[in-house]
């Protein structure tokens, strides 16, 4: 209601909106002819020309002749994002590793670093490690480049208004201002936006991955815990404080197994790392390697491992059915360890989903694995920074 | 992504948007001074004057001097919605009754009819009954009135693209084109928009009820079944086909009680009409009267009724906690029979919600009953029709 009650935009706002729309188009689709931009954006040729000139003047796009098309006639000029020159830094703080990357406008990972993360590494110790990685990458950046900001993906609940990590049961963080810590460590004043890993991965897959063009998507991400990034009506679902998507703490077994969050019977106690390893009689093992070893054992015919994987697959389908009945999505994406589990137990997942889902909610839903793979977290974190640029291109350049 | 990639609007679109914004403002807030409109919409005085003149010319608003304010100086003119002249018809098809109303611009119910509905009344028989009620009301409509359309609220799953009622387990309807049936029965060509009762009630409470100003809301509606209307980020959540919000079919007890939908352990088997009456040893009873008798018995100290109500209240809190963790809403509204259950077992609802909800998701959530009461379905159905008017005011008038 709030949005619709706004009056129409001013001329300045329209120009910003047009600049953002053109830049977003080439950011998402890559090099595009002026002719296609004219059609796609519904603007006339002279407006497209003026907008392109403004963006080129700010160093955000360049224009040139297209590659040989084999067609006769004068070719339409091609507008390209300045992917090598305009970039954002992206950080991903995961259960078992820290990653940093430099991502160009257009979504290409230009450079990256990865560090092992000892579990229970406190936030105060994570920031310097990531800052070191970024400083190292920064030395290789061409001198006339433009850094538009930085984004961080964290496996935890992130407050929308300021990016505070409220709670990350899997890393033990409580109320950690990781964005501010990184900014202080780097001694820079570029804005650093923080988001939940499932949310930003969903954002990336929706912008340029398997869910491109889909307006209603659930991206299920698993590590020790399980969370979802949700796209509803083409927009990210954030909830009031930024905490929506905590589907791993949907209780599926009343008085079930104790969860890291202190409650009992949460969905992630059945499909998360601990639950899978417990069911397979491997409670002492930890980490993604242990999980992959379990899937491998199931694949090689180990009966106990197979039973554990099938049972977890059934629980995965059980929870997905609930979410499909609640959200009526057109796609469910399985990322992180949920990808491994889904691939190992697809028959069980589908069978339970089909028996628990309502027919109308099931009829258009597709189950998919990520197109961007593990890079979704990094690319999504960078998208958080690019969003600021796209909202007002000439202000950031 | 789709929306943001659009270019800025044309001058025509801006004018339509401004007309819609002004009309929506007085539709939601009632009579408003030109001065307040200028501030609220961020437009200058002459633009407000021109927009008002256009809307007045179409008979949608009128202008006049305000009531005595006691303040000195020339008073700002007041813009009023033409509530008695501009109206929509609203229908509500419920488990136990059929309702029809004439709702004025501004949301006031101008006239209404109510009929008992025998359970299992087929759609083909519901349409003529409702059409009769509307014809009767129509005879009393002033001759220079403007009907902008009609909306229908149905307890069932409604396909977004055409309003087909796909499934209504509580009425037994399958693939019923109720909108078309009503239009044929009435022999009119006004557009008839169909929506799920929980969705339209949520819409009404969000526009002009207890959730005004809230961007993230869950409206839980119960009769025999349970469904939710969800507002996320200020917008209605519809899902891909229009079927989102089927929270009553979130399975909470694996291999639980058989549900009307054919599955087992759905949430509504514990908190819906049948579950409540079953738990109280009243399985033979049916209907809202039977349910109210049960709550009344609990209130008067009947031990078995009290146990049933407390247990259902605990299950209500259980499911709400899951939804709060998934959506992070700022408000949960209990409508229909959920209102009765919530009021009868508020302590159990809160206790279970507090123990199963994540602290960050709980910290801003308020539990409320509807402000518009049972009228929410009628007002929400009318809002479906008004939405068409507000999207392009001068096209409908």
Automatic annotation (TrEMBL), chains A, B:
CDD domains: ASKHA_ATPase_ROK_BsXylR-like. InterPro entries: ATPase_NBD (IPR043129), ROK (IPR000600), WH-like_DNA-bd_sf (IPR036388), WH_DNA-bd_sf (IPR036390). One of its GO terms (molecular function) is kinase activity. The keyword Transferase applies. Keywords: Kinase, Transferase. The keyword 4Fe-4S does not apply. PANTHER family: BIFUNCTIONAL UDP-N-ACETYLGLUCOSAMINE 2-EPIMERASE_N-ACETYLMANNOSAMINE KINASE, ROK (REPRESSOR, ORF, KINASE) FAMILY. Belongs to the ROK (NagC/XylR) family. This is Sugar kinase of the NBD/HSP70 family, may contain an N-terminal HTH domain. It comes from Micromonospora chersina.
């Amino acid at each position: 209601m709030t949005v619709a009650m706004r009056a129409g935009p001013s001329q300045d706002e329209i120009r910003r909106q047009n600049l953002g729309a053109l830049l977003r188009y080439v950011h998402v689709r890559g090099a595009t002819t002026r002719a296609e931009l004219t059609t796609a954006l519904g603007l006339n040729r002279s407006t497209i020309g003026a907008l392109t000139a403004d963006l080129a003047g700010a160093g955000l796009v360049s224009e040139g002749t297209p590659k040989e098309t084999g067609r006769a006639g004068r070719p339409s000029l091609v507008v390209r994002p300045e992917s090598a020159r305009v970039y954002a830094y992206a950080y991903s703080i995961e259960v078992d590793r820290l990653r940093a990357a430099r991502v160009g406008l257009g979504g290409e990972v230009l450079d990256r670093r990865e560090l092992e993360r000892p579990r229970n590494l406190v936030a105060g110790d994570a920031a310097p490690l990531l800052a070191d990685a970024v400083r190292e990458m920064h030395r290789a950046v061409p001198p006339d480049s433009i850094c538009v900001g930085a984004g961080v993906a964290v496996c935890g609940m992130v407050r929308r208004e300021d990016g505070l990590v409220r709670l990350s049961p899997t890393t033990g963080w409580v109320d950690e201002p990781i964005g501010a810590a990184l900014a202080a460590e780097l001694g820079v004043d570029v804005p650093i936006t923080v988001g939940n890993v499932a949310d930003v991965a969903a954002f990336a897959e929706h912008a340029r991955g398997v869910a491109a063009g889909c307006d209603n998507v659930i991206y299920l991400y698993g590590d020790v815990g399980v969370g979802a990034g949700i796209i509803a009506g083409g927009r990210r679902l954030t909830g009031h404080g930024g905490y929506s998507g905590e589907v791993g703490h949907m209780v599926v077994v009343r008085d079930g197994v104790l969860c890291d969050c202190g409650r009992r019977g949460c969905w992630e106690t059945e499909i998360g790392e601990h639950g899978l390893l417990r069911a397979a009689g491997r409670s002492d093992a930890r980490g993604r390697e242990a999980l992959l070893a379990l899937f491998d054992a199931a694949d090689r015919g180990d009966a106990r491992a197979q039973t554990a994987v099938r049972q977890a697959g059934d629980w995965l389908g059980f929870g997905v059915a609930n979410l499909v009945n609640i959200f009526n999505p057109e796609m469910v994406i399985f990322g992180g360890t949920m990808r491994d589990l889904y691939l190992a137990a697809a028959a069980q997942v589908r069978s339970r989903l089909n028996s628990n889902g309502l027919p109308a909610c099931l009829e258009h839903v597709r189950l998919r694995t990520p197109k961007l793979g593990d890079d979704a977290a990094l690319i999504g974190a960078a998208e958080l920074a690019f969003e600021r640029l796209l909202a007002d291109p000439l202000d950031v350049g």
